[in-house]
Q: What sequence folds into this?
């Protein structure tokens, strides 16, 4: 079985994240890393590989030069190979174009299973897995808290608001896993050394049969007119609860705000 | 005037409040047409009529129940083809965003998710990067498909006559691939829905596993209960109550965080709350930096005292 795990390279959420003049995420301003929610996707793929002999785990990313770091980390965790779709024309793509490029790359890579994270921690639209499935005409099993494969059938369990459900589909399929699925492993020393010998292929749009004009900022179907920093909220009042002072401040707050 | 498809969140015809907020927004843009997927359209229509929906499209197919979202997207594409709307609005939920994503591809339209405002010119506002930035955006290709966060507009009554129109749809086999093979219903909490509630009281690791004080204050205020991931991961509260990046996004009038430090992933789910109150025994807790009122103290004494006072004032 061949698994492609989609991993995104995102600006570190604990740093200062900002926008470039063209309204796109300023990927140079902040340090980047593998989106931590995609580590759960890698982990699920590696667990499937741990259970059977013939499982190949390929990490795939679409992003600029630096995005190769997301693949490196995936390889250190245990993925067997990486595919980096890197083409300047893709800069500024919206979700629709991003999903078109990824769907084309998945078609070329021809996996049995695609595993995605719950959402990217920068854009966090949570739409790419559904879009890819729609484009490929593959089933999408989303919000998996567990994932298993039996023969040609993949199944997940999801913990929804009104019900816990088990969902099945025939492969090939797209799966989107949550952070409930199990803590991702840390790369071991052995994993880090082994990663140095693993290969990362670079793919461009040309090899995917896509035209530069179909993607990127100019072709985006949505456009950001303006981004503005939001003024930091003025710090509120902090009251120590000595002799019940905090309690009365809270009750006053509730009554002044007409919450009671 | 342009017609705006409003995809109604409901449960068996009981309309969720965010759907009514969506009607308010739709009326800014044009004439709202409510779409009720699944059974219960007649019942839903009675509510929707009070909020300005003159037409309610009833769209049902057995596949909605037995497969994940693809059949819903297919049905909506057929509705959009028939109605030729000027925009399609959804309430942002994990599921609706997937439906919207698929619909956008099917009808060749740009997609905007998690808007906190939609203006009459169909441009949107989103808050991004932990609430530090605000983006003004626009769909420029196709019929704008926009998902809007709950609590982004008031649900303004606008009573009208309404007609319920059944719309037949055909669902292809290609959409029936992600089969729901088992479903165990969950027991309702009896409290307001977390994403709709005007007030949310959340507990974190600081509860030490005992949510009784959090629940008691929530009940005194008519509030929903939420939890941090630390509390959920410890098995103290079910995952469907988790607030944050990988849980629910809430935007209530008032958010009360008890024993929650205020990690960025938690903040991502509650920063757009109108007012934030934190109770934490650590004066250095990051949550105090963005709370309107912070109480430095033990939640096990503060919450019961506040609950008692609220109860006393009510009677
Ligand atoms: C990929 C990823 C996704 C995540 N998604 C989410 C998410 O969706 N939601 C979420 O919440 N977190 C999420 N997290 C986790 C997040 O980073 C924090 O670990 C989590 O929010 C911490 O929960 P907490 O505030 O309850 O616990 P802690 O950070 O341990 O804070 C507990 C607080 O309680 C205080 N306290 C202790 N005892 C008392 C007492 N008796 N009275 C008053 N105060 C007391 C302490 O001073 C402390 O500030 C995510 C993390 C990752 C990596
Ligand atoms: N540029 C990208 N490269 C690779 N995978 C991606 C990319 N963008 C999104 N994904 C995948 O799609 C998931 C959901 O992303 P999003 O819809 O952006 O929240 C992520 O967790 C990744 O698995």
A:
């Amino acid at each position: 079985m061949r698994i492609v795990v989609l991993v995104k390279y995102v600006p570190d959420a604990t740093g200062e994240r900002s926008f470039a003049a063209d309204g796109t995420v300023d990927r140079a301003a902040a340090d980047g890393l593998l989106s931590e929610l995609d580590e759960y996707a890698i982990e699920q793929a590696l667990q499937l590989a741990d259970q059977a002999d013939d499982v190949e785990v390929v990490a795939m990313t679409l992003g600029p030069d630096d995005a190769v770091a997301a693949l490196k980390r995936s390889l250190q965790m245990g993925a067997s190979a990486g595919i980096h779709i890197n083409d300047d024309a893709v800069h500024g793509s919206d979700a629709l174009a991003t999903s078109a490029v990824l769907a084309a790359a998945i078609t070329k890579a021809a996996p049995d299973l695609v595993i995605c994270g719950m959402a990217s921690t920068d854009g966090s639209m949570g739409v790419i897995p559904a879009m890819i499935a729609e484009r490929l005409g593959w089933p999408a099993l989303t919000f998996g808290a567990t994932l298993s494969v039996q023969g040609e059938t993949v199944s997940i369990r999801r913990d929804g608001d009104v019900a816990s459900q088990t969902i099945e589909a025939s492969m090939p399929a797209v799966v989107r896993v949550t952070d409930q699925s199990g803590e991702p492993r840390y790369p071991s020393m052995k994993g880090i050394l082994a990663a140095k010998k693993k290969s990362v292929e670079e793919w461009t749009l040309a090899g995917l049969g896509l035209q530069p004009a179909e993607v990127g900022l100019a072709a985006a179907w949505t456009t950001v007119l303006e981004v503005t920093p939001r003024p930091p909220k003025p710090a509120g009042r902090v009251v120590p609860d000595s002799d019940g002072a905090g309690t009365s401040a809270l009750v006053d707050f509730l009554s002044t705000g007409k919450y009671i | 005037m342009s017609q705006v498809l409003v995809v109604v969140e409901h449960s068996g015809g009981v309309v969720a409040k965010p759907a009514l907020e969506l009607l308010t927004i739709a009326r800014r843009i044009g004439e709202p047409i409510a779409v009720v997927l699944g059974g219960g359209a007649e019942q839903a229509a009675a509510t929707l009529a009070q909020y300005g929906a003159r037409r309610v499209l009833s769209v049902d197919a057995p596949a909605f129940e037995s497969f994940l979202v693809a059949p819903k997207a297919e049905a909506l594409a057929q509705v959009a083809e028939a109605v030729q709307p000027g925009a399609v609005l959804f309430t942002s939920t994990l599921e609706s965003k997937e439906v919207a994503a698929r619909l956008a591809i099917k009808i060749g339209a740009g997609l905007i998710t998690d808007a906190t405002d939609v203006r009459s010119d169909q441009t949107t506002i989103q808050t991004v990067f932990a609430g530090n930035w605000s983006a003004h955006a626009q769909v420029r290709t196709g019929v704008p498909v926009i998902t809007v966060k709950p609590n982004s507009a008031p649900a303004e009554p606008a009573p009208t006559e309404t007609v319920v129109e059944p719309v037949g749809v055909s669902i292809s086999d290609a959409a029936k691939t992600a089969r729901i093979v088992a479903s165990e219903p969950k027991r309702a909490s009896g409290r307001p829905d977390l994403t709709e509630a005007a007030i949310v009281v959340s507990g974190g690791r600081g509860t030490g596993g005992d949510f009784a004080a959090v629940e008691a204050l929530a009940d005194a205020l008519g509030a929903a209960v939420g939890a941090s991931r630390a509390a959920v991961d410890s098995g103290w509260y079910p995952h469907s109550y988790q607030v944050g990046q990988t849980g629910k996004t809430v935007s209530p009038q008032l958010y009360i965080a008890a024993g929650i430090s205020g990690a960025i992933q938690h903040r991502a789910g509650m920063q757009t709350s109108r007012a934030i109150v934190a109770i934490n025994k650590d004066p250095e807790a990051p949550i105090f930096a963005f709370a309107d009122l912070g109480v430095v103290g033990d939640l096990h004494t503060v919450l019961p005292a506040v609950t008692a006072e609220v109860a006393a004032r009510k009677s």
User: Anything to note?
Assistant: Chain A touches chain B through 83 residues (CB under 8 Å). The mean pLDDT of chain A is 93. Chain A has eight helices and 14 strands.
